[in-house]
Amino acid sequence: xxxxxxxxxxxxxxxxxxxxQLARRRRIALPADTEAGLREWYKFEDxxxxxxxxxxxxxxxxxxxxFQLALRxxxxxQARQNIRYSEVHFTIATHVRQGANGxxxxxxxxxSLVDIERELGVRVRLIPDIVRNLEPEWADVTLxxxxxxxxRGVVALGMAGIESWPANPFREHFAVAKAExxxxxxxxxxxxxxxxxxxxxxxxxxxxxxxxxxxxxxxELMARLAERGLPFEVCPTSNVALNNVATFxxxxxxxxxxxxxxxxINSDDPAMFSTSLSLEYARVGxxxxxxxxxxxxxxxxxxxxAFLEREERRRLAAEFQREMVELGEEIYGGSFxxxxxxxTCPG
Length: 347
Known about the structure:
This protein has 347 residues and is of the alpha/beta class. It has a single domain, classed as Metal-dependent hydrolases (TIM Barrel), CATH 3.20.20.140. The protein is 52% helix and 13% strand. It has 16 helices and 8 strands. An 8-stranded parallel β-sheet has the order 1-2-3-4-5-6-7-8. Strand 5, helix 9 and strand 6 (208-211) form a beta-alpha-beta unit. Helix 4 (64-80) packs parallel to helix 6 and helix 15 (292-305) runs antiparallel to helix 16. It is globular, with a radius of gyration of 19 Å. It starts with a strand and ends in a 15-residue tail after the last helix.
């Protein structure tokens, strides 16, 4: 099925083989020197433990060619899954803080994005993230880099990091992004409850909400955001891997759909969580007993939520519809209707 991905981190999508290659190139000692060992290392105690490992992996990206390698391998995997367009979170401040040259990295990435689209037929765009748990001056670096590269692959400013750190220091950064016409998104409601979502809504006024799953703890807020139509970027396996949800079967995605929340399915950090966007769709379909038309509807919803120009969205929508008809005939012997997922949750 043709797909769109809106919430995936470049650093968390580096496959074990590529990470080992980068580590050897940069002479960085990782806790494991085999792919199996890295997968064992990717067992997280909590979000802070995950951040520690994430930063260690980020250290393997130093020179422009490192970022080009990571992007190309990411794009090849997206192409393999028929993911035609991806908006990729990227923590440029972390890399500059570790010694990378932001201008050289930006030039290398811009060059790679053009090559990737020409050679692989997939489009990749970037969302540089402000990291809550870094000093505010690094948010300045992130915003400046995002504005400098908005015509070279950047589509939005984001905010990620440890949710227990306040978002208020970054109010002005998002005000500037909005005034400059740059899209803006933010993580919230993943590690903390509805209060975190309310804070981010007030400070960043995001056009999409990363995760947002703990909104189910506040029915009034969930109903208000559903009525407003604010899209959520939901990453089920990530939530289980980081112990924010006990099991996939207990994930609140069904409650969100039942409440009318607009959402897309995403993989977040697929290499670290041993998942992929295709696998996320399969798991969601199995767990909620969704038919092909409902899964196709989720794919079309992601397209609707993407930061694409109107004509490009129309072109992709027509392509997606045509391919889904062909898939229906190939697999089911007839077409199926693309539809919104209908879920009935107890209570």
